[in-house]
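Researcher: Let's walk through a ligand-bound prediction step by step. First, I give you the protein sequence. Second, the SMILES string for zinc ion. Third, you return the three-dimensional complex as structure tokens. Ready?
Model: Ready.
Researcher: Here are steps one and two:
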Amino acid sequence: MKLGHKKFHAQALLYIGIIFFSSTALNAKIAVITTTTDLNALVTEVGGESVSSQSFCKGTQDPHFIEAKPSFMVKASRADLIVAIGLELEVGWLPSIIRGARNPKITVGNPGYFEVGSLVSPLGVSTGKLSRAQGDVHPEGNPHVTLDPVRAGQIAKAIAQRLGELDPTNKVNYIQRAEALDARLNAKTKVWGERIKKSGVSKIITYHKTLTYFLDRFQLENPTILEPLPGIPPTAKHTLEVIATAKAQKVPLIMVENFFDDAAAQRVAKDVPNLRVVSVAVAVEGNAKVKSIDDVYEHLVLTIEGK
Ligand SMILES: [Zn+2]
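Model: Step three, the predicted complex:
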């Protein structure tokens, strides 16, 4: 009787174990938090139904300056993976979120913390000595890497590898989806390049060096920016210099990242004939029309085309 009871008990535990194991295996999604909406779009597409993902930064916010809210720490405390750009983009806020989360999985150096920026050949890496006098510079390179559709494809593939390490069962699916995304963005990049060439625009002024990778990919020049130094708001003196450059180089377009004030750009346009000023979304969900990573580039190309 006693033995029989024990046997029953063991069997029941085994069944419960099987039910529990299979339900977690079927239902538990990898909980990912990204720092930006672009990264969130890439993780969501690559992860498919095996991953749940959200972003700390909104598409309408300057990703350099996000408030490390307590609610972000709560979210991070339950995360399996943090995907960040690195290159100091999140240096002002992500470390305090991670500290506050008290989740060993996502601390720097563990598999649940992943930076992608340094993996995709950053531009603007500083070689000389840096000082605060040069503004808010990023010595490891410009962190706005997802503005290049080709690098975005490479980042998707890197994300697939990391998801595959955390969840080997679905590794093949992650890699297949990332390769499809990469192939799609590469094909579209050719078409975007042709459209930009046809537009006749070859020089664009921006507010901050947010669009460096986009401009570089499509061989567009960025003769100057409205910030006198990275991270420093426009000054009257520097705006006069921008006016002089825009006139001398016949720059046809200023694209103002839509989380910045366009007053300095409008001031420049007042003195420069045929200069268009357009506020642009520079991230997924940066405006109501920009819903996907593809939309980010499409929106910028349409802006250049004047559509
Ligand atoms: Zn920046």
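Researcher: And what stands out?
Model: The chain has a mean pLDDT of 92. The radius of gyration is 23 Å.
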